[in-house]
Amino acid sequence: MVFVVSKTGIRLMPTTEYRARKLLKKGRATIFKHRPFTIQLTNRETGETQPIEYKCDTGYQNIGISICSEKHEYIHEERTLLKDETKRHNDQRKYRKARRNRKTRYRKPRFDNRKGKITKDGFAPSIRNKRDIHIALFKMYAEVTPITSAVFEMGQFDTQVLKAIEEGKPLPKGTDYQHGDRYGFATLREAVFARDNYECQICGRSPFKDKAILHLHHVGYWKGDRTDRMTNLMTACERCHTTKNHKPSGKLYGLEPNLKPFKGATFMTMVRFNMFEKLKEAAPDVEIHMTYGAKTKLSRRSFHIVKTHANDAYVMGKFHPKHRKQIKTYQKLRRNNRILSKFYDAKYIDLRDGSVKSGQQLSCNRTKRNTPRVNPESLIMYRGLKTYKGRVSVRHQHYQYRPHDKVWVAGQQYTVKGIISNGTRIALQEQLPVNINKIERTIHIGGWYHTA
Hints:
alpha+beta; Nucleotidyltransferase, domain 5; 5 domains; 5-stranded antiparallel β-sheet; 23 strands
């Protein structure tokens, strides 16, 4: 569907791509904006509109959106947010700090992205960003669609009850269950060690019998799950908690936490009322309603449709037209790669077989500097002649092309894979790299990538 606004900026009913193409060709309309694609009529100031309902299945990682009138569904889409934003920002801070320390003179940090911002509205930057994405998507469609009402799924969750249901235990009574597994312990580290009886869960070594040094290991670290919930933490000794065991075929690789994370439930419990107020401020003329997941589940079953975030959005509200749209999925993209430094490891000859291996492959296998360097898992003794000293590459400029951008070369359309040769050439998917001067036309992908 194509959105339409009048000559004076009044939002009108959406139209089809075929009709929009005819209006543009005859000069009766011009392109108003590209995301979402909207045309503006040149000879019409007003028009008749029908009630339109915006429905959103909110979430920490996935967002489902359905925009419906009484007879038609105009938007049926699912948007996936970034998963590793916190890790990438941690990498950015790590490399930036290391660069400051390598300077001949110490350079103080020039900014603090958290100073004054958490106390501003009570949310950390990562939580605030996910909340603002929900609001931005609603505003994007509300600016070009005559939306009269909106429904958002904003449930309040008790994570301790969800945990009991996941473990198959009876529902807790009273209020003591809300204390959680960490109740009575000063630190999370102490609680995990006490739960595991101060023994390594891989080899069984103990600091009392074997003088082992215990570490906290994130069970789902290998797949990006670095949450500090108790079920995702386990006790590991210094011999098992090595870089080698974190890699495929290692002892720590492939382990699964006992329970899934409750990030989505925690996120919605935190921001539900704040988001509700900001949505009303963003569109004062739209009736904003709140619904709950249990009601959505019952409605979806009554319609006999499969579980998707977009279908959950469709079954909300009062409009459920038979004329439906095919689902579209979007993936959130990083706007900038803020890691300016890239490290290339040194190369050594392995004294055992004469092969060339990186310094990480022949490391001392410790994860912290306070761990003794000499241990049975150390491979540093097998480092022979250094064949490559390694280097740090620093990017000094921001490139205008990003992966998934569309470019035209010699009349053919290609998809950008990346930038090479210090920005002078563009790597294309399923095509040889080309010089940047041969690019005839470009369409930048923006913040969302249409996957299907």
